[in-house]
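Tutorial, part two.
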Amino acid sequence: IRGKNIYVAVGGYPEISIKDAREHAFKIIQELKTAVEAYGERFLTHSKMTFNELVDEYEKSVLSTGVKRSANTDLSKIRKYLRPLLGDKKLAGMTEADILSYLYALDLKPATRNRHLALIKAVFTWAIRMGYTNRSPALYIKALPEVTSDRRAMDDSQLQCWMEVCECWRNGKPDHEALALLMFLALTGLRLGETRHLRLEDVDWSRKVITLRHTKNGKLRRVPVCDKAFVLLTEQRQHLGDEGWVFPGKGTDNPVAEPRRLQKRLCEAAGIPPFTIHEMRHTFATKLIESGADIHTVKDLLGHSTIKVTELYLHASPARYHEVVNRAMG
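Running the prediction step on this input gives:
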């Protein structure tokens, strides 16, 4: 093209027939010609770029700006998976088959693979906009079907046993802040990430309302808390003061680390199944519904973006239906 030789590997024989290779080569030539017309000589330089080099630019221009909330998880995917498996491939030669092979090589759940696909699509969408390429090999790849897992929730006796262990351990264990965090999550149904980043300055002590700034959608959210949760906040204030993290980490300026292993040990000590931290949120939602709260109130308290997400909790609460049918049938 314009006096330059462009070399692209299309596969090996006998996996790819000579006829298929020729057709594939013709398609690539047409794409390169179109790209040259659209982007000029700049594209010829970028056609030699590897996926690793593209990702370098994406990290500098997008992920390091602090704008994208998923930047840390995206960087982790790039470091652990994308670079080792796709990094050496030339952009000009990357195909849909390369992306599919990558996705199916991951020993991960469909939902997690879909997050990887979304990241790859985002990288190529940005690359097209910046003129590094004129196509995305992931464009026509559809997300995998995701199986919704059962939304488990503790029953009243399990929650009581769990709370009793928490209270006991708070008096003698070194994990005071992590235990306080877990108890607060159980009493509010909040997400772990938004609660870890709660600050004492974000508590309205007169109205018993907290302001969440580190939310899933990036929007401020104000949430009233129950009396038990407010007592816990007050106890944190008494030994921490009026400023800083409500649940601080040990010897650092960061909030407490995610206490997932501690949660597992708590469940073992309480003699109950190993409920995850997120299932504490399910427990809170289920108790709200069983207490008669309307679905819009539950949606607002949980911070769901749509009512459809909240409706999933209705199906997870059989006690709610038992009450209705018993009342109907006398």
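The domain at 18-130 is CATH 1.10.150.130 (DNA polymerase; domain 1). In part three we will examine how such features are distributed along the chain.
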